[in-house]
Amino acid sequence: MPEGHTIHRIARDHGRLLAGTALAVSSPQGRFEAGAERVDGHVLDRIEAYGKHLWYWFDNSELIHVHLGLFGKYRVARTSTPPEVRGAVRMRMSNAVVTVDLAGPTACELATPEDRASIVARLGPDPLQRDADPQRFVARVSRSKAPIGLLLMDQSVVAGVGNVFRAEALFVNGIDPERPGRSLTVDEIGALWSTITAMLRQGVKDNRIITLERADLDRPRSRSFKRGESTYVYKRRDCLRCDSPIRWWDMSGRTCYACPTCQTPVIIGRG
DNA sequence: ATACCATGAACAG
DNA sequence: TGTTCCTGGTATC
């Protein structure tokens, strides 16, 4: 679930349900008891999202930092009485109309504005921020000899991209994940940024990842295309566009997917 | 009942 | 580069 679009969607949806109201906050599982006590009964001012991070600002100056990691999930119950706890609930936030449970996060902790600032400072631009600076992304990529497939997963290069958007954004731009960042042209890097921005925004709207472009939705070009498909290469056996068998391999501990036909290893005439 | 897997990232060495 | 942590769904015995 959690790439940047999920986090921003959560901030928006949960903000509407919780912000401006006093919350009963607890830690049914017990691993966030001390933190929950500090905000229990206080009004949540707002939920902030940046990259894959969330911050909960309370009116008593307390701040909670949440990072879902690979397993973290929220469960929302729109009932006035909190439902029975299911599974390992690290944090529960309830008001008169809704209960929000958080399970399995990498981080759920009290924080200070300074903590938050240092996290934001080490993150790259988040395409979902209004004032995101693409030049920071272009500069980092064009200067690096690391493979672009790794750079896109590096949150200090661009914040919010995960394994699905990496695979899909590189596919859409015909770029092989193993190409060093500095072998990409400025145009290619700019196009990647545009793609990532569009995919993340669409992801927030859809509340899921569907990366297919209009041309492919209107005129499926492959045998393997079926209604309801959502990705070109991620976790697929065959390329959704040309039916070539997808190449998948381990890239620093995460599975990388690419189409050997649609994604060229190098540009002719460059290295 | 057990194994494995996942849209993540910090840390050790 | 490898290990560790977090949870729950699905596959496999």
Annotation keywords:
four-stranded antiparallel β-sheet; 271 residues; DNA-binding; globular; alpha+beta; single chain
Structural account:
This protein is an alpha+beta fold and 271 residues long. It is built from eight helices and ten strands. The chain has a four-stranded antiparallel sheet with strand order 1-6-7-5. A four-stranded antiparallel sheet has the order 2-3-4-8, sandwiched between helices. Strands 9-10 form a two-stranded antiparallel ribbon. Strand 2 and strand 3 form a beta hairpin. The longest helix is centred in the last third of the chain and has 21 residues. The model has no long low-confidence stretch (mean pLDDT 95). The protein binds a DNA duplex (13 and 13 nucleotides) through helix 6.
Radius of gyration: 20 Å
Please tally the helical runs, counting DSSP H or I stretches of 4 or more residues: 8
- State the low-pLDDT regions, or none: none
- The proportion of residues in beta strands is 15-25%
Calculate the mean pLDDT score and round it: 95
Spatial ordering of strands, largest sheet: 1-6-7-5
| Main beta-sheet strand count, sense and barrel state | 4 strands, antiparallel
Q: Give the overall silhouette.
A: globular
**Helix residue percentage:** 25-40%
> Structural class of the helices, strands and pairings?
alpha+beta
Q: What is the number of strand segments?
A: 10
Beginning-to-end CA distance, first to last residue:
36 Å
Provide the succession of SSEs: HEHEEEEEEEHHHHHHEE
